[in-house]
Amino acid sequence: MIARIVFVAFLGTRAFLDVEGTSQMFKVASGVSGNQEEDREIEESEQTFLVRMLWVRHGLSCANVLDDCVESSEEIPPIVNDTRWRDSVEAPLRLSREHKGVGVEWEWGVKPRGWSDLRGDQSADCALRLKGLAPQAAGLGERKAETLGNDGDVIRLHDLFQDPSLTSCSAHQSRRAGEALGSFLEAKSWGLDLVGSSTLLRAAQTSYHMFIEGQSGQQDRSVVQLPYIDERAPAAMTAVQLDNSPSSVAEQQRRLAAHTGPEAERSVDGSFVVTSGHGLASNLADKVLRRTKGAYPRGAHDFDKFKAFVALDLLPQLANASRDGPRKLSADGAVAKAIEGASQVDLGPGSAAGLSIQPTSGQPNVLLNYRQSVAFDPASSELARVESEGRVLTLAIVGHGAMIRKHCLAGATRAEASASGAGMSAEGRVEPQIRANNNAVYEKLFLVRRLTRGKEVGKEVSVTLSEAAGDCPVVMDAPSRADSMKRTEARDLQSCDKPFDVKPFLRVAQPREGPSACEAAADARGSFPILYPPSPMRGDLGGGPNLLFP
User: Measured on CA atoms in the order 11, 15, 16, 20, is the torsion positive or negative?
Assistant: First the structure.
């Protein structure tokens, strides 16, 4: 039985700036001619919203499975000598403006997983050598030949698998994850105010399978792609990462429909981000769209900018949600340009600088200020107060492992690095051991405070965002990658044929009757355990009255 996920329809307006809050009237003396004084009334109101982000790691992708690439030279498939196969592998490089002139050094061959470079680092999957890479930036030394890492010329095969989809089995696992989480949401009476994802296909597809496909009355909804939460490999890991380069929304819709059915054809909404994608022409179109329409960039990775976007652009469009039916979300051009142009100093926690934006497209007479304050204690009584007042927005957002690890599992990652005697492994050439399971769900909390002063002309709105301190509680766990991939069959990988077929590089098992091992890992009882609430001390923030959405 599939649980019904409750959605709250949203109204795409700037009405957030006018939502009623606790207000008071006071008088300010303003100088006029002579000795006269005129009393001028100024209205002040203050609100606090709790934003609960259910942060989901995407399902297992067609690039992820190449972590099980063959381990001996004898197993490298003959297809690597086929001209058409080589063309399909290099095609994304040829279309890439960032890597113009870069190609594969085919004479070097394709090396198996575990191949060691000149400094002793081992490849996490099969390896290729590139030619034509740009020199290192000034001060970083010469690029190292036959070496992995961003300063080398050897990359993993999966680095060339541009914007991968989910594996066929992972789509199945994502549906099962949606059923388990949907039952939890229904029991808690948590309505989802938004279903979103990064601009990468694997995240949008996971979101679609978990929260829209098969959910009663939700088939006309779309996954809203959000800026600044795309994946990035650890900083020193690779010189090329096309697997983290999004294709266009139209291409993603086409691929999703091809694997799922025509009902998914319009299931991805790129209204907040520029809708072009990977490729030279697309990069030029992105610049034009951002300059003329103020849309957010596609493929970006910056958590502080994401938080500013949530507080200044997304929340205003969701705060006055209505049951009358959804309307199109869109970027506020002035806000988008200000956030994109802001520095880390402006947006970081505790920054005294922040942003000042005037005018906004929705409120031309409003001065909008933003800053991020320091993190708050998640045991704070203020959370319960805000929740009891109904000022809660719950967002289901599918993202990626590196950002979740950095911003939800930082404490565990530091403990891992300390125990091993290494530095912060999240920035190194080796993948850290601490990482979220695919389809696991974490809770990231934000408090957004809004102080409004003034009336229609000369109104000033100051928005402050803070996030909960410490690692994120796990809402729902999921099967491990090892369990999902311990015996892979061809049917698990039917969707993994573009830009090239991954099956020849894996030890694909003979089919058995019944579900595959990957499917069975999702079907087993307790595969997606609910682990919420996190602790008696923290308590449970859910289940209270919702006054915003009666």
Answer: negative
